Structure prediction request, 389 residues.
Amino acid sequence: MISVAEALDQLFELTDLLGTETVSLLEANGRVLAEDVHANRDQPPFDSSAMDGYAVSAAKTGDVFRVIGEAAAGHRFNGIVGQGEAVRIFTGAPVPDGATQIVIQEDVSRSGDQITVTAELSENTHIRPSGGDFRAGDAVTAGRILGPNDIALMASMNIPQVPVARRPKVALISTGDELVMPGEVPNDDQIIASNTMGLHALLRDLGAEPRLLPIARDNEASLRTALEMAAGVDLIVTIGGASVGDHDVVANLAPKLGMTQSFYKVAMRPGKPLMAGRFGKAMMIGLPGNPVSAMVCGHVFVAPVIRAMLGLPTGATPRRRAVLAEDLPPNGPREHYMRARMTEDGLVAFGAQDSSLLSILNEADALIVRPSKDEARAKGISVEYIPIR
Ligand code: AMP
Ligand code: MG
Prediction:
């Protein structure tokens, strides 16, 4: 049995970087920028007025100016502002030649085409200098997940399309004679396939393109059919059948059907019967069937793999630290990912940690990470956790 860290290293070795594609800015939210992009212009492209007021060359309280024209956003004033002259100006308009400051309209009184400065003026010229936001050639750098702020900036840079990492295509295959899809009517011996749905959501959130394949039954022909249907994907994720029981099709049959296995079994709780390898051109991860195990392995293993495929830095799912609000008993030999609640006083692990309890997982905000053979931890001590909300 290998450690979680060793399993992650082996997973990264199995992971291929995917190619890139170009998408419109309207489709770029949540995508990973694959190459640096550069501003096509300065912003603002000219000295620009930050306020509504009057553009003048220099002003102090009591000065009188004659208004010789107007500059509005999108409509520059083409003349020159001389001594004793002012141009009526609005926010976003180019500052006319000769003007060095904007006197805001609240600070003048106007009569006909004459204005008088009535207030004590501040140091602020109310001019946004050309290139003050960014200059032509300034970069937005690759390897970041684009969000609304990046998109606003790149739009301002006049970059209408961006190169992004292709979304990893992921096939999700539940295995089990006992499973039916949500919405179907189960017989007395059946339960609903839940993990594939949860993992589908997780994969979407990560920027992957998941495909839910039909449930594979616990026999060779059915598993073979499902694996054939997965042709063309980047990653195959199977769920269940990963232990060593008679009916555990993935563990028993996947190697026979063509999977080259890199590892099987990881020293962790929940999630021990995890396997990974390659199946044809795809990477393959076999997750345990117990619902919480599958979801925890999704957070701990599948998420870092998807990030690596997208060209984001390889590494374990980011952890944070918080104090314990209650004592924890010593941990056994396997790394333990304990479902916990975040309270005002810190983390509280749930009493029930059975790997079948989705209701507890759903109440949890965090997975406390207990190292192998961790000693008992007292209330008030700081521990590592993975946020899962
Ligand atoms: P297995 O690894 O196939 O032995 O499954 C372990 C446990 O997880 C069994 O109780 C299965 O019924 C359950 N299980 C397996 N796959 C799923 C699934 N997709 N959704 C919900 N429960 C599952
Ligand atoms: Mg099964």
Q: What stands out?
A: The first strand starts at residue 20 and ends at 24. The chain has a mean pLDDT of 97. Residues 175-176, 240-241, 247, 289 surround magnesium ion (ligand 2) (CB under 6 Å).
